[in-house]
Amino acid sequence: MDIVIKVIIICGIMFTASAQGPNRNRGEGFYQTVNSNTPGAGNSWITPEASFFIWANKSPDTTNAASSTKPGYFPFAALSSETGILNNASLIMESRLLSYSRNNRLQFGNIAAGGKLTLPDNRQIRFHGLGLELKYIWNYPGDTFPSLAGYRLGATGFAPEGYIVSGSNFQFKAIYDADFIGLYSWLPIKIAVNAGMRIPLKKAGYAVSQYLFSTAISYNGLQYDAFAEYYIEAFNNLTGPIKFVNPEHTIEVHFAENPMYISLGGRIRYNNGVTLYACIPFLVSANVGSAMTTEDLVLLNRSTGKGSVYYDEKSRGITDPFDPWFAKWKIIARISFPLFYKQTGSEMMRNFLLLKNKKDGKKIDIDDQLKTFDKKKNLQSDEEKERKKRLDEIQKRREQIDKTDQ
To answer: Any idea what DSSP says for residue 346?
Structure first.
């Protein structure tokens, strides 16, 4: 009987502990950096996103009469989902539903579909994680976005957020991450690295491939996360500048001028699975050579002899300056929630470890609970003995009184 009671106590404690942990998305990533895990078979998460930045072009966009150097306010809306097909495979759908405006009306941006694969060992918390993400991306071909000084051909070129290629693109990312809680239960730190490419499927002027790299580190608490991330979308210009030619401009882009950002962000996670997310990317690209100013344009065109300021650029056929005048910062906000959800073993264990090592809040010690049970049992036994002893004494006194009366 005592064993049964102890088992009931232990089960009750474990049930109480597990009920305190939030429903977690095993596949959630950072900003541009992807997590190697998938949500789990049958689990589906929906994520609406809103983003915003302020941007002013340095030079009027010659392909857009509405372009000006005044600051522009750019709000966007997107929607994404990830659904577990197998334990180690998921289906991804994404779309920027509202993008750059035209005639004061927001336009459709893009749609993407793909999948993520990982190793079967993600049923449990693992220290080393490997994965692969594949996507098909279709960018709206309309001539809708403002560009850096008109450096584009149609809907392909340099936008405030980076480089856009109209139409069909293929993208892949190889994923590695290290989840330190898999080695040390008291260290909920995760490091992730992604490397891949974005390849235009239709070869046309100005359409070139980009190399994608990002790395991130995060603290993943019970209900709060915080992360920092670096990412770059680079052209094939590591060893030398890449040249872009269109009928109006010939420019070159150095490696330091590629779109690159450092992002800081975090999450608040609720027990029902709803997750609030915020992130602010900051531009860290740097200018090399001539800048997009009237002064540098004049100097570049005058650099006809050796010793001139921009003679090297002029000798390579460059007609216009370039600098990374992308959005200096952005604000990203998301809310994620489960459409279908069954807690996976790895996230159940993660909740248990986080609860176990939580410093502030009530801790449950099974040994102490069992000791308390034994103490109560011994105390009850002592009280029972004392009660029986008193009853015996009362009975003896009654017998003595009866004898005296006789």
So the answer is: H
pTM for the model = 0.80
Phi and psi at residue 18, to the nearest 5° = -70, -30
Chain position carrying tokens 């359409």: 207
Give per-residue burial for 325-335: e unless 16+ CB within 10 Å, then b: bbbeebebebe
Q: How far apart are CA 19 and CA 32, in angstroms?
A: 32
DSSP H helix total and E strand total for the chain: 5, 19
pLDDT tens across 237-272, in order? 999 999 998 888 899 999 999 999 999 999 999 998
Domain ranges (residues) in the chain:
2-287+323-356, 293-318, 365-406
- What is the Cα–Cα distance from 266 to 225, expressed in whole angstroms? 5
177: β partners: 129, 192
Statement: residue 164 has pLDDT above 50: yes
Q: Are 232 and 210 in contact (CB under 8 A)?
A: no
CATH topology of domain 2-287+323-356: Porin (2.40.160)
Residue-wise pLDDT tens digits, 188-231: 999 999 999 999 998 776 889 999 999 999 999 988 999 999 99
